[in-house]
Amino acid sequence: MEQQPTFQDLNLNTPLYNALGDLGFERPTPIQSQAFNVVASGKDMVGIAQTGTGKTFAYMLPILRHLKFSKQENPRILILVPTRELVVQVVDEIEKLAAYINVRVLGVYGGTNINTQKQAVAQGQDIIVATPGRLFDLAVSHVLQLKSIQKLVIDEVDVMLDLGFRHQLLNIFDVLPERRQNIMFSATMTDDVDALISDFFIKPERITIAVSGTPLHNIHQERYDVPNFYTKVNLLDHLLRDKESYHKVLVFVAFKKMADLLFESVEALYPSEACIIHSNKTQNYRLRSIEQFRAGENRILIATDVMARGLDIENVSHVINFDTPNYPENYMHRIGRTGRAEQQGHSITFSTEKEQPFIELIEAYMHEEIEVLEIPEAVEISKELIAEERPQIKERNNPIKPGKHDSDGEAYHEKKEKNRKENLGGSYKAKIEAKYKKPKTRGDKNYNKRNKR
Ligand code: AMP
């Protein structure tokens, strides 16, 4: 068996060994041993790792190992994190690791007096840990000079982008020296994270740490090829009818808008059985949703990837990937929510034709194929397409009108003739109303009006 690396292999120095000794840490975690040389080399780096993997020390060990003592006032290391709680946590971790090193660390975040922070900055610092908004305010006030920054660390990038910090990050990049090392950590890969990397990073080294404790062997994985959004809704409806087996179901959807759309449909089909979390919901709403799901008051939780971060909910019977994650790492994060603590878990993935390449990536990543199931005959194949599924017509002034085939968007997964139930027009919402004889959403006044008639 391969020897597990030790801290001695990382060639640290006495002050760091002493601090690690005080903390009682015996061995580097996988992300720590893999990131050390990359961070030390000065190359850009992208680490895919969750909180709890030891990622803070993964960047701080090499940074503190090579940071030279200096009396200069301007900071040389900038660490950006999405929330003030994380600023406090990261500063605390750095202080523990730097217990025997003469290094000045300051945490700054919004919602507190900026003048006190300006005074602290003016005393001279080596490392600044900050939330993006406050950092930028301090930089434009010229109290904080960023021209000496050599290394930029951005932690929890996916959360940062999901909270809408992209613009602020770009503003910060603008005032940083061009020659710098970029180090980034994200628990999941998203298209936004990918775009940020390709725009601002130079040939980054990627290090991926699998979700700890995701025992694939006790997660039964299945998948369906489903032509479009509304057929996915119909299939989900079909599965959810079995309330006994599907007693705690976490449904993942990549985008907030789709999550909202799906929630509307599921609410109509299963009133008071579903709840939802994504970053446009208030903190209170999110906490309440999670609590209701945890306590079993709601059987179904619809969540986006980022919001389901770190959710440790027991006895999730099924994870349903309503869409197929573009990145295998996200698939692993998602399905890891079921089958915890040696229980048998189930994951079911729905994929359209467009999503097939992602299935291939996931299967290659796991070195295993996911069992494909046939859509049950009772499930209606919808022909209705949501805006995102309709073909894009790019040439707005094209005199030649698009042909019928351009706008129809045929379902690629055709059912046998005898099973084919055609959608004969009328909106899906109206159909749900008719089928379940309930308002589609609470307070749907039109429903009551229609029924009075
Ligand atoms: P993080 O992923 O950086 O939030 O770290 C998670 C927790 O693991 C923190 O409480 C760290 O102090 C702790 N930790 C970091 N590195 C190690 C290590 N090598 N051995 C044991 N615990 C560690």
- As for the CATH topology of the largest domain, it is Rossmann fold
Structural class: alpha/beta
Shape: elongated
Radius of gyration: 25 Å
Structure summarized in a few sentences:
With 453 residues, the protein is of the alpha/beta class. The protein is 38% helix and 14% strand.
List keywords for this structure.
453 residues; 7-stranded parallel β-sheet; binds adenosine monophosphate; single chain; alpha/beta; 2 domains; Rossmann fold; 17 helices
What does this structure look like?
It is built from 17 helices and 14 strands. It starts with 13 loop residues before the first helix and ends with a helix. Strands 3-4-2-5-6-1-7 form a 7-stranded parallel beta sheet, with helices on both faces. The chain has 2 domains: 202 residues, P-loop containing nucleotide triphosphate hydrolases (Rossmann fold, 3-Layer(aba) Sandwich); 165 residues, P-loop containing nucleotide triphosphate hydrolases (Rossmann fold). The longest helix is centred in the first third of the chain and has 14 residues. It has 453 residues and is α/β, with parallel strands linked by helices. Strand 3, helix 5 and strand 4 form a beta-alpha-beta unit. The chain is elongated and about 75 Å long. Helix 2 runs parallel beside helix 3. Bound molecules: adenosine monophosphate. The site of adenosine monophosphate (AMP) has 13 residues, from helix 3.
